[in-house]
Every structure is written in structure tokens, then in C-alpha cells.
Amino acid sequence: MPGVTHDEAPLLGDLMPWSVAPLRPGRGWPMGPDAATLRARWAAFVRADPAEREKLLAPTRSRTLHTAVAQLPGHPGSTVPLAAASGPCPEPVRVLHGPFDEQWLIPDHRLIDAARPELWRVAGEGQLFLVEQGYVTGATGPAVLASAVLPDGRSPAGRPGRIRPLFRRPGGREPNAAPGLLAHLAAALGQDVGAADLLAWTLAVAQASPAGCRVPLTADAGLWARGTELGRRVLALEARADGTRPKLPGGRRPYVRAPLPARPAEVFYDADEEALCVDEGRISPVPKEAWEFEVSGVRVVELWCARRTAAGEAGSLEAIRPAEWPQAWTSELLELITVLALLAELRPLQEALQEELTASVEAAPGPGITADALRRAGVLPVPDTARRPASVLDHHEEGPGGQFALL
Question: CB count, 10 Å around CB of 100?
Fold first, then answer.
């Protein structure tokens, strides 16, 4: 049975039609690599007098000290204007700040210009997110990434992608798939196909294009099985929803050979020694493939380190940062290196799968499961309702000033 060539492959935006634009924070200080720093920034903010508080907020058209907004879904914070804010910092939560960079965010709707509440409503147990990376001509790296925590959807190259939840409702209910798509694939493959299978296949074969991320499909059950198994291996490294820590084989595991300094100024890679140098600090062995791993043309490790060594503008809340390099950052850096090294090992398998997809078309030409075939089957175009969020509100959400929000 045939597969589908790149130009004939359907767009991810048609296969998983509900997507949300990246979060727009409006200011940098409510997000950071460690939660303690965010609490310190909040404390400095609420201690400030009204004039200084306005300066520290960095107001925008969407958020000022007097803006009235609803609660962020799932987070029972205050809805009084920030001019009257007091008390302890809302408990920071984990978010994904661009590729492979889990950071912390103060989940306060008053601080975030565009928080995308529809995403917060469906986040939680059973949910996964695909983040489509912005297209960059000639760039290497994955076209789409998976996350178990809420992603902000930011591209390292500054080009916006799209966030696609796997499910449209909380608790892993109602797959975000074109109506009829999973049944169509099941009939073509002669086996059950669920939302998790579609996600795994996408991680294995998705390709970037100027028109958007494309996902070649196949009616070959053997190819589908190999692709979904490979995609699950990718997912286990990218999302790690079960909290497992991946490991490289003994002898290849990175270790701290010299302690990382409190506030490093320079990060570079010593290819001869396979070492990541953070000023006088040193981690090795670091495979070249991990150091060179890119998303949208930007090296992931280099960007991760740069975000933790930036000083922040003097007098701003972003200038409040750890006095010493936290031990947790070192552990996270070692894990990041491990994940990228293991993902790099899967790349040849993904490339081989792509070649098999192309060869299957040449060996058995036919209609395959192309975008046109999905249109003939009535799967495409998807109805407009599938591109909008589902109505999921089954509890009260507090609106501005303590009033109930109406949706």
C-alpha cells in the first residue's frame, strides 16, 4: 500500500484542527528558571509604592495596574487590580518556555497579556500538547515537539508556531482530530487508531514546510507500526509525563567535572574533550550531537544556558535572580544533554522511515492517504467547529472583582 509524498501530505493543521496561538506574556519577570526567584520578584513588586509598582510592572495596553481580568482557569488567584495586590506570591507552576526549556510562571492573569485561558482549561492529567515550530528556511531540527506541561509556544527563532492540545476537553476526552480521520485511518490500516497513535506518528514523520507542518500518512500497517513505535520513543524523551529520567549508557553519561560558577559569563563547547564549559565549570562527556542539536536553526543547549546567565536590566524585576547557580539547574542541564543526545540517536531512524514512505509510493503508486484523498472521503475540509475550542466549563470561574465569569 502506498504512502504519501511531501507535497501531497496533509497539513497538521487539518489533521489536528484546534490550535491556539502562543502565549503573549507582555513582560519577562513573571517567568523564570526557578520558583524562588519569582517569589522574590513578587515580594519586591508588592512592597513598592504606587509609582514604583507601575514602573516595575512594565504596563502594556493589555495590562496595567488597574486592568480588571478574570481568574486564570484552574488557579484561584486574586482578581483585584494589581494596584491593590498584596500578600504572598501565587504558587508558581511549571511551563515549557520554548523547546526543551521547562521554567516557572506566576499563574496570575493580571500579569500576562494573553494567557490563552482555553489552554489552561484543558491542561492537566491525560493531556499532551504538540507545539508546531515556526518555519525557518534551511533550518534543521524537529518540525513539531511534544510537551506534558503547558507550553508557551515560543519559537527560538522568534517566529510563532501553534499549540495543538491532543484532547479538546479535560481528562483526555474528545481527541483533537479531524472528524472521521481516526476511523478513516483505522479502516485503511485494518486496526484501531487512537489519538495517541496519531500523535506518535506525527512526532516520527512530521516535516516543516512554508505552508505549515506536513504529516505524510500511509495505509501500510507495517510502516504505521514502526512509525508509531518510533514516535512513542520520541514522546518518552520530549514529554516524560511519568517523571522518568532518561539515561545514557554507562561511560557516556555526562558528569560535572568542575563546579559551575555562581554567575557564569561564558558558555562554549570543547569538541576535542567533548566538554561543555561554563566559565571554569565543566561538564563531560557531552556528545557533539547534543551540543549541535537545533530547533528552528538555534542550538538548544546554548539558548538554555543564555537564558540562565542573562543579567537582566538594572532596576527591573528581571534583575532579581539567584545569587548562586542552583543545584537544580545543574541537574536539569545534565538531563537536557541526555535527552538531546538520545533524540539525536533517533534521527537516522526517522530519516529511514521517511525513505520507506517515499519508496512505498514509488513501488505501489496509487492514491494513498493524501490530502486530496481525505477530501474525497469527506474528512477534509474540517468543519469550523473543530477549529474552535470545545465548551468545557463545568464549574464557576471567578471574573473581575470576584464576579463569576460567564462563558
Answer: 23
